[in-house]
Write a structure and sequence with these properties.
The chain is α/β, with parallel strands linked by helices. The chain folds into two domains: about 10-80, lambda repressor-like DNA-binding domains (434 Repressor (Amino-terminal Domain), Orthogonal Bundle), CATH 1.10.260.40; about 85-275, Endonuclease, Chain A, CATH 3.30.870. Helices cover about 50% and strands about 15% of the residues. The protein contains twelve helices and seven strands. It has helices at about 10-25, 30-35, 40-45, 55-65, 70-75, 100-105, 125-135, 145-155, 170-175, 180-195, 245-260, 265-275; strands at about 85-90, 110-115, 165-170, 200-205, 220, 230-235, 235-240. Strands 1-7-6-5-2-3-4 form a seven-stranded mixed β-sheet, sandwiched between helices. α2 packs across α3, α2 (about 30-35) packs across α4 and α7 (about 125-135) packs across α8 (about 145-155). The longest helix is centred in the first third of the chain and has 17 residues, at about 10-25. It is elongated and about 65 Å long. InterPro entries: DUF5753, Lambda_DNA-bd_dom_sf. It holds the Pfam family HTH_31.
């Protein structure tokens, strides 16, 4: 069965409409009747496969009466549902909760993550994450607790039978974030997570020198019914790469990371060895 033509924006729009419909207290059938279309179309819209016309969306929003901010967000997303690729600009800093990324992870079947400088959010302890925030120029102290809560919720996504492979450079493992106690706890946490059924950790030792991953960190997401997506994070922006040729470049990079990294068992022993460092 071919993968459905579905974009990140389209799926986010569909999820937004779903939340609006569910929050209205009306059934899909009732909403469809008021909008003037059949229930099947509403279902396809919620799955990101079909689109409402501008008039149908306006009627649906008037029927369901979401908050003004959500209404405006959906109206802005509506004409861009078919666009591939999404550069989200967040202002001074990224939001505490990466809404779009989390929505994509929840429907993914596989997550492949590469981090050359620091450990990924999914593998961090709270204390390690706090130390990274303290060192950051972008996170004010009053936001730290909320961001830690959000990162904890993101870690929980790994428990949902999502197949995860994390490629970590030795430099990321050796990065001092806080004192020795924080470092020791973080390394122990990694060895525990490496035993999770759906988590694989692969280490790229510094001794190999230059390699394909020097281009930068990324997260590749694969889906049961959609084309793969690459998620890139910067200080105050997020990018979702969807063009097939562009994604293929990252898939080739993953093969190179797999070739130069230690196998799963040797990676586990490498991390264990760092605990006495």
């Amino acid at each position: 069965m071919p993968l459905r033509v579905s974009t990140v924006r389209g799926r986010e729009f569909g999820e937004g409409v779903r939340a609006v419909v569910e929050g209205s207290g009306l059934t899909s059938r009732q909403v469809a009747a008021l909008v003037g279309c059949d229930e099947g179309k509403i279902s396809e819209v919620l799955n990101g496969k079909l689109q409402l016309t501008t008039l149908e969306l306006a009627v649906l929003l008037s029927v369901c009466r979401p908050k003004a901010a959500e209404r405006d967000r959906l109206l802005a997303l509506h004409p861009a549902q078919d666009w591939l690729g999404w550069w989200q600009q967040h202002g001074e800093r990224s939001p505490n909760w990466p809404t779009t990324a989390v929505a994509q992870i929840r429907v993914a079947k596989e997550l492949i993550d590469w981090q050359p400088h620091a450990l990924p959010v999914f593998l961090r302890t709270d204390e390690y994450a706090r130390e990274l925030m303290i060192a950051s120029a972008a996170v004010p102290p009053e936001e730290m607790d909320e961001r830690l809560l959000a990162q904890g919720q993101m870690r929980e996504l790994l428990r949902e039978r999502l197949g995860c492979t994390f490629y970590l450079h030795e430099f990321a493992l050796r990065l001092q974030a806080g004192g020795p106690a924080v470092q020791k706890e973080q390394l122990l946490h990694l060895t525990l997570m490496a035993n999770w059924t759906y988590v694989t950790i692969r280490v790229i030792p510094a001794s190999i020198g230059a390699h394909a991953g020097v281009a930068g960190a990324f997260t590749l997401l694969k889906f049961p019914k959609f084309e793969p997506v690459v998620w890139l994070e910067a200080l105050n922006s997020s990018t979702f790469v969807e063009q097939r040729d562009s994604v293929k470049g990252y898939e080739t990079l993953v093969k190179q990371l797999d070739r130069v990294s230690l196998n799963e068992r040797d990676s586990f022993e490498f991390i264990n060895g760092l605990q006495s460092w």
